[in-house]
Design a protein that fits this description.
The complex is a heterodimer of chains A (about 120) and B (about 110). Chain A is mostly beta strands and about 120 residues long. Helix content of chain A is about 0%, strand content about 50%. Chain A has strands spanning about 5, 10, 20-25, 30-40, 45-50, 60, 70-75, 80-85, 90-100, 110, 115-120. In chain A, strands 2, 4, 5, 6, 9, 10 and 11 form a 7-stranded mixed sheet that branches. In chain A, a hairpin with a 4-residue loop joins strand 7 and strand 8. Chain A is globular, with a radius of gyration of 13 Å. The mean pLDDT of chain A is about 95. With about 110 residues, chain B is mostly beta strands. The chains are: A mainly beta (about 120), B mainly beta (about 110). Chains A and B meet through strand 4, strand 5 and strand 9 of A and strand 3, strand 7 and strand 8 of B.
């Protein structure tokens, strides 16, 4: 079945960097927009970033603008989130999610299980 | 404002109908989506494009839209429907997405 598997989470000190990965399988990854969504402990969902199916267009939430970079490698069926200048309020479970096909915005029909990031000294 | 507002909690008895609302300025300009999230699990899409139901989602889940408010209706609520529910929408170009704060549905 269609699957997304995140990895790369962990404990990191404030100000440091971390890269998350999301491996896609059993669907044509290169046809879909991809998103990152996070959820702080005990809080709601927060959209983080989106990348177009071809990787040419990227957009971030204001809360991570200038610090986080979304990217993808369609040859490896993998989505990435490079996080820098991490802050304690970036502590969350990070989910990758499949968006719409090509340039058509749509809901997030497929989600990974999430990877936990803790920013603490 | 690009915020979506949901009531923090709704309670219903088994077999009754639960109506969860979501309001915000983005809603007339872009579709609404609804997600169910149970503790420790990833969200699951239960309604897309205001009222469409993905494969595998029970028929008791339905969605509707009117102006700046969308509603998720769960008819004949079951104990397994107890979860957090989040609405979602986007700007017209799909370059900025937002979630509501979530509604905790309690089945009494």
């Amino acid at each position: 079945q269609v699957q997304l598997v995140e990895s790369g989470g962990g404990v990191v000190q404030p100000g440091r960097s971390l890269r998350l990965s999301c491996a896609a399988s059993r669907f044509t990854f290169s046809r879909y927009m991809m998103h990152w969504v996070r959820q702080a402990p005990g809080k709601g969902l927060e959209w983080v970033a989106v990348i177009s199916y071809d990787g040419l267009n990227k957009y971030n939430a204001d809360s991570v603008e200038g610090r986080f970079t979304i990217s993808r490698d369609n040859s490896k069926n993998t989505l990435y989130l490079q996080m820098s200048s991490l802050r304690p309020d970036d502590t969350a479970v990070y989910f990758c999610a499949r968006g719409g096909e090509y340039n058509t915005p749509d809901g997030f029909h497929v989600w990974g299980q999430g990877t936990e990031v803790t920013v603490s000294s | 404002s690009d915020e979506l507002t949901q009531p923090p909690s709704v309670s219903v008895s088994p077999g009754q109908t639960a109506r969860l609302t979501c309001s915000g300025d983005p809603l007339p300009k872009h579709y609404a989506y609804w997600y169910q999230q149970k503790p420790g699990q990833a969200p699951v899409l239960v309604i897309y494009k205001d009222s469409e139901r993905p494969p595998g989602i029970p028929e008791r889940f339905s969605g509707s839209s009117s102006g700046t408010t969308v509603t998720l209706t769960i008819s004949g609520v079951q104990a397994e429907d107890e979860a957090d529910y989040y609405c979602q929408s986007a700007d017209p170009s799909g370059t900025s997405w937002m979630f509501g704060g979530g509604t905790q549905l309690t089945v009494l």
